[in-house]
Amino acid sequence: MKDAPGQRRLSEDPGPESGVARGGAQVLIFPEAGLAAVDDAGLVKMLVGGDARAPRVVWQRFAPLVHRLLRRAFGPEYDVADLVQEVFLVLFRRAHTMREPQALTAFVISITAHTIRYELRRKTALSWLRFGDTEVAAAAEADLDAREAVKRLYRILDHLSSNDRTAFVLRFIEGLEIADLARTLGVSPATTKRRVAHAWRRVVVHARRDAALVGYLASLRPVESS
Question: What domains appear along the chain, each with residue ranges and CATH number?
Answer without folding.
Answer: 1-126 (1.10.1740.10), 129-226 (1.10.10.10)
